[in-house]
Amino acid sequence: MAKVSSFDLGNSGTNAFEAVSASTTGTAAVFDAVDVGGLEPGTTNITVSKLAQRDVYQGIEFDKTIKDEQMSPDRPQGDNESDNDYRDYIANSTLDVAIGDKSYSFHIVQDPTADTIAGLGAKTIDELAAEINAKDELIASVEQVGTDKYKLVIKSADSGVDNKLSISQKNIHFGFATQASKAAPNND
Question: Other C-beta atoms within 10 Å of 122: how many?
Fold first, then answer.
């Protein structure tokens, strides 16, 4: 019968967290010891009761035409505002993502400070995904989910509650939030 001994996590030497580390890939767990000389041969049973996951959000489905076109919200129905007001509306159309203590605002236009609507320079959804991917904490992709059907997918690069995503959108609608939007990609 094996002897069970008490273990002190706060001793002055190497503690349990420094002696052995574990990582997972798929369904396998790998354990590594800094100093294998301090380990005794034997079998260790590990029970994984909960595994941290990445936070993942999928937007609404859109067709290939919308995927390949530059994003530009339509003027809201019944809008009698001036071109300057509409330029401001488009320039302020954003997808906002917060992760941990960081927040990012992604515009659907190239230059939100431009003076004219044409000068704003609309982006494609692929360009928006590439801009999101430029942030180390985020992963974005435009995934094909059917014949000529796509979704924008945004996820945290790392797992765990500290990497929880919060996504909101303003004047656009990708399906990440329940708020009403004046302009939305549609499949009509």
Answer: 18
SS3 of 165, please?
strand
Instruction: Render pLDDT for 15-27 as a digit per residue (tens, 0 to 9).
Output: 444 555 556 555 6
Q: What pLDDT, in 10s, does the model give residues 127-176?
A: 999 999 999 999 999 999 888 888 899 999 988 888 888 898 888 878 87
* H or E segment to which residue 68 belongs: helix 64-68
Give 73-106 as a DSSP string: PPPPTT----HHHHHHHHHT-EEEEEETTEEEEE
Q: What is the DSSP letter of 70?
A: B
**CA max distance for the chain:** 85
| CA R_g for the chain | 24
